[in-house]
Amino acid sequence: MLQLTERDRKELRKTMRRAAKPHLRMKAVALWNLGQGKTRREVAEFLGVSKASLSAWAKRFRAEGVGGLAIRPGRGRPAQAQASEVEQVLRQSPRSFGLAQTRWTLRALAQVVPSLRGFSEMGVWKVLQRMGYGYKRGQPHLTSPDPQYQEKRGGWFKRSTRPEPIPGR
Questions:
Q1: Which pLDDT value is given to residue 123?
Q2: How far is CA 166 from CA 39, 156, 159, 169, in A?
Q3: Over the stretch 18-61, which tens digit does the pLDDT of each residue have?
Q4: DSSP string across 23-55
Q5: 143-161 pLDDT per residue, tens
Q6: Contacts of 8 (CB under 8 A, 6+ apart)
Q7: Which end of the chain, N or C, is more open, meaning fewer C-beta atoms within 10 Å of its C-beta?
Q8: Which has the closest alpha carbon to 57: 74, 77, 67?
Q9: What is the C-alpha separation between 16 and 43, in angstroms, rounded?
Q10: Is the model's pTM score more than 0.90?
Q11: Mind giving me the DSSP string for the chain?
Q12: pLDDT at 165 (0 to 100)
């Protein structure tokens, strides 16, 4: 059983109902039930968590309040890929690394960037996604030395702002 003050109950009730992150809502529900007299075993079985987790949540809640229930930064496996290395390589042409291509591919990045060696293509894609990069397909760019090229190419390159009405409707 967890001893809760009226302020703690209000705080947990608010977190249970309005927290943006699901893990905060679940922890608040667990602590609320402990405060209502349920045993750690009952709450752990119902929520599918360990009794040790419940104890740790209760301890952090007593020490820090609801803020102690959040997942702390630095948890989990540390990243193997070096963001600075990846960025440095991405800002250069693949040809400067001896590759016979003009655009980077996931496979080429895994070969060239030392911290990405051994990564699958999906692994490289996830690293790039975490760094804020996205896929952008190359677009053909037509030009001509003709000084009147812009006029001659006409309106077929320009997008219409409104669709044409369908005849007969």
A1: 94
A2: 70, 19, 18, 6
A3: 999 999 999 999 999 999 999 999 999 999 999 999 999 999 99
A4: HHHHHHHHHHHHHTT--HHHHHHHHT--HHHHH
A5: 778 888 777 776 555 555 6
A6: 35, 61, 65
A7: C
A8: 67
A9: 15
A10: no
A11: -----HHHHHHHHHHHHH-SSHHHHHHHHHHHHHHTT--HHHHHHHHT--HHHHHHHHHHHHHHGGGGGSPPTT-SPPP-S-HHHHHHHHTS-GGGGT-S-SS--HHHHHHHSGGGTT--HHHHHHHHHHTT------------S-TTHHHHHGGGGSPPSSPPPPTT-
A12: 72
Average pLDDT over the chain reads 87
Provide the terminal-to-terminal Cα distance of the chain, rounded to the nearest Å. 72
pLDDT tens string 118-135: 999 999 999 999 999 887
Q: What count of other Cβ atoms lies within 10 Å of the Cβ of residue 78?
A: 5
Tokens of 78: 């540390």
